[in-house]
């Protein structure tokens, strides 16, 4: 009747009567250490049942923007996908979906989609065959201790806005790159991955309140959520510092080679292995857009800014990497 590729969930209608029904449980109430069992057809062995415990919750494994898997050591193998994860009350609390394995077989690390996520999607899949999600119009990244210190946060929490879509809901509300979203519609953002779930589940057209951390103070911002659309250096200008970075000012030739529309800025052309820049995650080809929130338009600004932060304990870079912008924090050793 409907499917959602982002969460790997489909709703199937079966024409039959008097079938036994497995009740759906509450995956939010699962606790780490609780016993569960997985049912499926591993390696073609029909109706196999394995048992184990809940190893972790809200696990992100890089499967997509809505990762919030239940991790279990109940044996899940090829052929288990789509089978239920059941608690001791006989309630379905998850859908088995993936394993981590270097051999292809189970090593005690399996993952299931929380059943509460499924229940949230069922009404839309049944009525329209697809999912309509809310859209905020930002790219975000997780908070680290170094980033939190650089931004003046006393806790490692929130979602750091790395870029804002032009003329999107967030930009119209005044949200900027470098803002940290601490709350969304009254709900605290402890991890960056919390935000996409909350935005996606927001009714289109609803105006929600966000608590933003900017300039070392919190500010409320109201945003009208919109509908998410479907998928949707040559020359002598070279500078090298003790961070292990070699940079060049972008000229028309470099801009063309990088596919840029405008020939301004500074690009990293080399990163010395095991240098502070390398350990921070900076890479050749990164375009430095800001240093400690100061725009970098040319090599002169880069030099002046680097000189001004020479004694700083941390340096916050905003870099453009291909089509994305990300923040990277460099912490100097005492």
Tell me what you see in this structure.
- By secondary structure, this protein is of the alpha+beta class.
- It has three domains: 2-128, Thrombin, subunit H (Beta Barrel), CATH 2.40.10.10; 134-227, Pdz3 Domain, CATH 2.30.42.10; 238-331, Pdz3 Domain.
- Helices cover 16% and strands 36% of the residues.
- The chain has helices spanning 115-128, 145-151, 169-172, 194-200, 252-258, 276-280, 299-308, and strands spanning 2-4, 9-11, 35-40, 48-59, 69-72, 84-87, 92-99, 110-114, 134-135, 138-142, 159-164, 180-184, 187-188, 207-214, 217-224, 226-227, 238-240, 245-249, 266-271, 287-291, 294-295, 314-321, 324-331.
- Strands 17, 18, 19, 20, 21, 22 and 23 form a seven-stranded antiparallel beta sheet that branches. Strands 3-4-5-8-7-6 form a six-stranded antiparallel beta barrel.
- Strand 20 and strand 21 (294-295) form a beta hairpin.
- The radius of gyration is 24 Å and the shape is elongated.
